Amino acid sequence: MDAADLRIFEAVARLGGMNRAAAELNTVQSNVTARVRLLEDELGTPLFHRHSRGVSLTPAGQRLLPYAERMAQLLADAKRAATDDGAPRGPLVIGSLETTAALRLSPLLSRYAAAWPEVDLVLRTGTTGELVEHVAARRLEGALVCGPIDHPELQAEVMFREELVLATARGVRSLDELIGKGELKIVVLRAGCSYRQRLEDILARRGAVGARLLEFGTIEAILGCVAAGLGATLLPRALITASRYTERIAVHALPVSEAHVETLFIRRRDSYASSALSAFLEHVRPPVLQAAE
Amino acid sequence: MDAADLRIFEAVARLGGMNRAAAELNTVQSNVTARVRLLEDELGTPLFHRHSRGVSLTPAGQRLLPYAERMAQLLADAKRAATDDGAPRGPLVIGSLETTAALRLSPLLSRYAAAWPEVDLVLRTGTTGELVEHVAARRLEGALVCGPIDHPELQAEVMFREELVLATARGVRSLDELIGKGELKIVVLRAGCSYRQRLEDILARRGAVGARLLEFGTIEAILGCVAAGLGATLLPRALITASRYTERIAVHALPVSEAHVETLFIRRRDSYASSALSAFLEHVRPPVLQAAE
DNA sequence: TTTCATATATCATTTATCCAGATATCGGCC
DNA sequence: GGCCGATATCTGGATAAATGATATATGAAA
Hints:
2 copies of one chain form a homodimer. By secondary structure, chain A is an alpha/beta fold.
């Protein structure tokens, strides 16, 4: 049994047929059949049920499949690890919350890109849930998300600590005034945003339920609307302070227990940390820990 | 790059030479040289320094080596997983503390062996530290050790809860009497035994330090000596109750915080749980949880 | 310095393996 | 029955791997 055999096996299993697998692997069907047969002979057990519309996995095949996938991943990692000579280079695909990107990342990223011009840096934004999913599936090497995260395959490291505040238009004096008025509207970045649930919890704890939800695609839009008196939102304090709407937005501090939020960098435990990633973490890490104290 | 290449690479790295690797792999040196060279060409970086007494790893080779080892392990696991049809069979090598083996395992093991006669069961005893080490290095599929365990590569599951008690000869009324006399001797199974540190902590908290340490290879010997008034020991209550020295040993209960100890079953997170192991856990698990309540 | 023991590198040759294409076979479906 | 979409089997040729003989480098001992 060899990695090549498992690659073929995996393709057949995934595509449900030897012909389709052959096409994907740029070879012919007879070849695929023969390799699968050899693998079955070696293991002493059939891996596929053959039927007229293709093949399906036997129980043995089902047990083998995850190993085939891990094998492919391991080979790719091995190649990267050996090739990587310590000088950051090549692709680095990471994720981030939009708020983190806006608030913290821009200066760091530009410094990083300048320091390591040979790295092709890609930053994708999404919600914490989406990013966790992408990192777990290895579509991202890592991501900055909103803590806490508890996922057995991921490791997390605190990168930033933010104070979340409730933002409303200038006229509003306090949270309670806002809630008292009824017809509360809250503005969030998008569905699944980690701040949304938190904001709803905060309001619920103060007796406000069933607030109307508004979604905007950019932070600018949210702040603009909040400034215009459309509703309230929950964002890191620094983000509001730095915006051009500061003058027209009232910031309502929350008790520490609710205000504190940690931005974590997550990555797979079992995956190779490329030099590009290590260098990225070096850039992001130290200034932050100072800032947090 | 393929698993076969990495196998050759690993052998060369481990044995420090292509000739030695060739001998181990049952092939010829020229072949090994060629394969290594191909691998180096493919990766675009040398993996070995060649010198007159063999070869040594370059940095790239050092980075690659762990992947080669993981690859070999993964292939072996894959084979086992596919071959394993759910009926427990073949070798099952597990570890246990000697006390756990004596106290809990004997009836379970005999039932297990009777239920699955095709399993070749091997039980090795050792200290918690040794067993953790062996499981991490995959020399054991799993082990019953004394909790708590915090090791990133291992997962743990509570199997038994024991009450530890201090055992002395009949004449001794209380812990304090024992400590007060000075010249305290404590008897442990062997160096590194997890109960030893715990016993020393317990005594230290009561003002007894510098107790003399005696080591005996078997639990029988320990109990015999304790009964004879040689010293004190720390063991699960049930173990003393069940022994033939019960009459001559005084049992001193400890406060709950010190007495409670959990026996965990540990195994590697990333390794395949064979049917033989799953069946073993089925045998060990359920009666225990009842007993603990 | 010469020689020797012990390494790796290279090369021609044999051997085994893999691949491609043609063909046979099987199982539904109209 | 005949067709369609599958997998199974077979064979020649291309490709890659293993082998054995030989060349080369290096340090240690005579």
